[in-house]
Write a structure and sequence with these properties.
Layout lengths: L1 E5 L3 H13 L3 E5 L14 E4 L8 H11 L4 E5 L4 H9 L4 E4 L4 H20 L6 E4 L2 E4 L4 E4 L2 E3 L3 H12 L5 E2 H9 L6 H16 L5 E4 L3 E4 L7
Parallel strand pairs: 1-2, 1-3, 3-4, 4-5
Antiparallel strand pairs: 6-7, 7-8, 8-9, 10-12, 11-12
Length: 226
C-alpha cells in the first residue's frame, strides 16, 4: 500500500516512515499542500495534516475530494470537536488527533482503504460467514457452532468478526486492539491474548484462530480430509 503523507513537521515524517514500512506500506511525503494533486497517481491513502505552511489542510481536503475518491485521513493536533466536524465535512474519511499511536493509525489506514475499495467495486460483505462448522451472523451478532448457539462477549464477537472478514489475511495485534478497543494501553496484548484463548475454547476449534508469530492472527481454513 502506498501512502501520501502531507506533513510539514520533519520529525513526524521521519518517525512515521519506518513504522509504515514495518507494516508493508511505502510513503511519499510532501511538506506543503499546493502540489498534492500532482502526486495522487499510484497513491492508496492520503494522510493529511491541517497546519500546512502554504494552505490550510481543510482546503486541500476539499480540492482532493472534488476530483478523487482516494481515502483521506486527517492527522492533526487540532482536537476540538468543531475541527473534527469541519474536517469530516470537507471530505475526510477519518480524523486522528496528534499525538497518536502508530498501531491505531495503521488500523485506520487499513480500514478506510477497505471501505473505499469495497465502495468502488460495489462489493458487499456477506452477513453470514461460515467456516469449519462455525456460523457467524454479522447482522445479528450471533455465533453457531455445529448448529448450537454459542454466547460470546461483545469484544470476543468483534475480534472473531474482524478475523472472519479479513478473508484469511493476517490481522496484526495493533490492528485488532485499535479496531476492537479503539485505543491501546500497556496491557493491551495480554487482554487480547485472554480474549483469544477464551474464543478458541468457546468455538471448540483451537486451530481455527491461527497465530502468525511476530505478526498477529488469521482465521485458518480446515485442511481437506481432516
Amino acid at each position: 500500500m502506498r501512502i501520501l503523507l502531507v506533513e510539514d513537521d520533519d520529525r513526524v515524517a521521519a518517525a512515521l516512515q519506518p513504522a509504515l514500512r514495518r507494516h508493508g506500506m511505502s510513503m511519499l511525503r510532501l511538506s506543503e499542500g499546493r502540489d498534492v494533486m500532482a502526486h495522487l497517481g499510484g497513491v492508496d491513502v492520503v494522510l493529511l495534516d491541517l497546519g500546512l505552511p502554504d494552505v490550510d489542510g481543510v482546503e486541500v481536503c476539499r480540492v482532493i475530494r472534488k476530483t478523487s475518491d482516494l481515502p483521506i485521513i486527517i492527522v492533526s493536533a487540532r482536537g476540538e470537536v468543531d475541527d473534527r466536524i469541519l474536517g469530516l465535512h470537507s471530505g475526510a474519511d477519518d480524523y486522528l488527533v496528534k499525538p497518536y499511536d502508530v498501531g491505531e493509525l495503521v488500523a485506520r489506514v487499513e480500514a478506510v482503504y477497505r471501505w473505499r475499495r469495497a465502495a468502488r467495486t460495489g462489493a458487499v460483505a456477506p452477513e453470514v460467514i461460515e467456516v469449519d462448522g462455525v456460523s457467524l451472523d454479522l447482522a445479528r451478532h450471533t455465533v453457531m457452532v455445529d448448529g448450537e448457539s454459542v454466547m460470546l462477549s461483545r469484544k470476543e464477537f468483534q475480534v472473531l468478526a474482524l478475523l472472519a472478514t479479513a478473508g484469511g489475511a493476517v490481522c496484526t495485534r495493533n490492528r485488532i486492539v485499535a479496531e476492537v478497543w479503539g485505543r491501546t494501553w500497556p496491557g493491551a496484548n495480554r487482554t487480547l491474548d485472554v480474549h483469544l484463548a477464551t474464543l478458541r475454547t468457546k468455538l471448540r476449534r483451537p486451530e481455527l484462530v491461527q497465530t502468525v508469530r511476530g505478526v498477529g492472527y488469521r482465521l485458518g481454513l480446515p485442511v481437506a480430509g481432516e
